[in-house]
Design goal:
It is built from 13 helices and 2 strands. The protein is an all-alpha fold. The protein has 2 domains: about 220 residues, no CATH class; about 30 residues, no CATH class. Strands 1-2 form a two-stranded antiparallel sheet. α9 packs antiparallel against α10. The longest helix is centred in the first third of the chain and has 32 residues. The chain is elongated. The chain starts with a helix and ends with a strand. About 0% of the residues have low confidence.
Length: about 325
Amino acid sequence: MGKSREQILEWESRWALPAGAATLVAIALLIVGAIVSAPVHGDNKAEILEAAHEHGSALLAGGVLQAIGFALLIAPLLVIFRAAQSRSDRVRAQLIGLIVAAPLFFAVATVLNASATTEAADQFAAGEAKSTLTAPAAAQECRSDQQDKGSKEFSEEFAGAKDPLAACQDEKVADDEAANAISDASLEGAASGFAIGGRLGLAIALLYTGLWAMRVGLLTRFWGSLGMALGVATLLGLVLFLVIWFLYIGLLLIGRVPGGIPPAWPAGEAIPWPTPGEKVAAEMQPPDDDVIDVDPPPTDNGSSTPGEPRRKRKKRD
């Protein structure tokens, strides 16, 4: 049995504001987490592991902050999904589990990835990681790179080295050692698995929720379509691009979105957005002031047809 309009509005008034606040906190944690772990970077895997070994605590702290941020994103997704479900019986309630699981998978993957990277960095710094790339093979790859880039550009890439080819060879061997250290980390497999599950789950959640929220009028066509597009982007690992969309959702749920909230929210029912064709038809419709009532055409004997309604025609200037 469907909920009444009063029940829908009561539930949303209770949870929309906390969910909106949680969204804004989540965005802040994701940004702060990225800033905290910013020292861990590099042009290749070897440089990244060297930085991770030096700034291991920052990497773990940033990972924990971002994990909490991802977990908090359950709140806005859940409220939007439930609001859409309340306005349409066609929304599949079974997908609510995916709405909850996807951000949690991201949270777990973030912590596991930070731990796996720290473990790999310690092994790499201790010289325990071994390269499967032989010196002759590395030298061959470097000579190929030199031919592709040209001697000048290749030398500039290893500026300061007496022998650019030798520096290139050492870098490739070190990078292979770093790659092996990462793949051998005990938590790497679990981190990759949760990350793949999180990306796939969040993509489906955003596609489905964005579609139905747009159909019932909870999101405008622009923001609904953007959420669906960013859902696809998560499959490519572009997760942080979702910050803009969730910022809008957070402001929407606390009632601070520019332009006001869509009318489907206060109405407690679906108010679909008009299609482009319907908009054009509405614009072409003459206003009521330009329409007057006229009598129906007379019959053959000169009298009006009994019971026939009066017709309307446009006024002439």
